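Consider the following assembly input.
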Amino acid sequence: MSKERRNLLLNIMGILVLFVILYLFNEYGTDYQIRILNNMAVFITLAVSYNLVNGICGILHLGPNAFITIGAYTSALLTMSAAEKQMTYIIVPLVWPLNVLHTPFVVSLLLGGLMAAVFAFAISFPVFRVRGDYLAIVTLGFGEVIRVLANALQGVTNGPLGLKGLVPYTNLWWSWGVAVLTIIAITKLINSSYGRAMKSIREDEIAARAMGIDPFKHLLMAFLISAFFCGVAGGLLAHLITTISPTLFTFFLTFNLLIIIVVGGLGSTTGAVIGAALFAWGGEALRIVERPTDLGFLKIPGIPGMRMVIFSIILMLVIIFARRGIMGRSEFSWDWLLSKLGWKEKGF
Amino acid sequence: MGDFFQLNDLVMQFGGLTAVKDFSIELQAGELVGLIGPNGAGKTTVFNMITGFLTPTSGQVRWQGEEITGFPVHKVTAQGIARTFQNIRLFTDLTVLENVMISFHQRIRTFFWEAMLGFPTYRREEKRIRESAMAFLQELGLAHLAKEKAGGLAYGQQRRLEIARALATRPKLLLLDEPAAGMNPQETNELAVLVRELRDKYALTIFLIEHDMKFVMGLCERIKVLDYGITIAEGTPAEIQSNQAVIKAYLGEPK
C-alpha cells in the first residue's frame, strides 16, 4: 500500500466518520445544535472559497458578500413556487421570466453559483486592472452596489421587504455535502499546477510573469471559482434562514469572513475550516456576553453587538501575537498526524 | 542578416529622461554576448524592453523573423525568451522544486477542472512536470534542496535556482541579469563553467549583463558597452579592454 493509497483511505474514512457524527446529531441532536452545525458548514464553504482569492492569490478582495447575495437571491427565486412569488411581491410584481421559473433545490444552488460567477466575470476586467488597496476598494464598492441594487430593484428582489417563507431545504446533508465537496475541489486546485501559478502571483507577480504565467487568467480563474462556491453557499444560507433581505448581506458578512481566514491563517485551507468552525460555534457560545448578567454585586445589562467587539479584540490579538494565524500557511496532513501519534513508517 | 534575434534602434524615454537611445544588436543562435556599462547605464532597461516589462518608446524587437515589440511578458516567455533578475526574485515561500515546476505551467495541457476533479490525465501531467523539474534541479546541483523553502537557500544557491527556473521555461534565448552579483571568486568561476555547459547542452543563446569584468571578459565572445543609454563600444573582449571610450566611461578622463 503506497502512501497515496493510505492517505486516500484515511480521507474516505475521515469523511465517513464525519457523516456518522452528522447522522447522530440529525437523529438525536437538538434543533439548536443542528442549526449551529449547518451554519458551520456554510461558513466553511464560504471561508474556503474566499481563502482561494485572498490567501492563495494574495489579493485583498472585499466583495464576497456580493456573490453570496447573488447566489442567495437566485437560488431563492428559483425554488419559490409561482403562487408564493405572487403573494410575496405585493408592491412591484416580479419580472418575467423569474415569476414562472421553478427548479429543484440542487439546480437552484448550481444556478446561484453560476450567476455569481457571471457577475464576477463582468466585474473582473475593472477589478484586475488594479492591485492592492485599489483592488480592495473596487471590490468593496461592488459589494455595496449589489446591496443597494438588492434594495432598489423591487421587481427582482422585492426590495427591502426581502423574500420570506422559503422552504428550509438546507439540512445537514446538503450543507456538509457542499462543504466537503468545496474543500476537496479547492484543495485539489490549490495543490495543482494552477494553484502553484496562483501562489507564484502572490509571491512575486513580476517573476511569475517572466516564468510565463498570465496573471489575469489565473486571478480570474480563482475569482470565478471562489464566486461560484460563494454563490452556492448563498443559496444554502437562504434556504437555511428561509428569510432573506438586503440587510443580511452587508459588509459585515465580508468582515466576518475576513476575520475567519485571517485568524485561521491566510493561505491555509485547514485554517479557513478551523476559523469557520470556531466562528460559527463561538458566535453562539458568546451569546452569553449579550445577555443581561447579574454578578451579585454588579448588574450588567445585555449589550447587543458585544460579540462583534469580542471578535474584533480576538482579531487584534491574533494580528499582534500570531501574525500568521492559527495555521500559518501550513495544511493538515495525515503524515503529520500519524507521526504525532507515533506511527512508524513500515515497509510499504 | 540572420533573423534569430534583433533589436533595432530601441529607445526608452521616461518623461524627459532618455534611459536608452538607439540600441541595436543582432544575436546569432548559440552566441554568448555580454552587455556592460556603469551603474544606471540602461542595461536592465534593455532587458525589460526585450521581455515586455517595458514597451519601447520606439524601435523594434524582432525574434525569429517576427516582431514581438510590446508583447505581454508571459507571451514573450512563451516565445522562448527567459530571464533572471538582478535582485533575486524567487517565490520565497514555495519550495525549491515548486519554484521550478511553475515554469512548466505555461505549457500545461490539462484544464483546471481536470485538476479539481482529480482526473488521471491531470495526475499524469503533474507527475511528468515533477520529474522534469527534478531533472533541472539535478542539473544545477540543487536536487538535495528540493523540499526546502526557496527563501531559506544560501545566496549562491538562490542565484542558481533563478537560472534553473528560467531554463525550465525551455528558452532559446536566455537573458541573465548580473548572474554573478554577490558571488565570491570561486562561485563566479563555477558559474562561468556552468553557463558555458548549459549553453552547449541546451543549445542556448545567452545575453548577459554583468559587472564582474573578469567573468565577462572570460566568458563572452562579444561585448557591448552602454553609458548613459548610449552604445559607446562593441567588440571582442580584447577590443573592449583597450577601447578608450570604455576606459573613460568607467574610470573618467585622465587629468
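The mean pLDDT of chain A is 91. Ask yourself how this observation constrains the way the partners meet.
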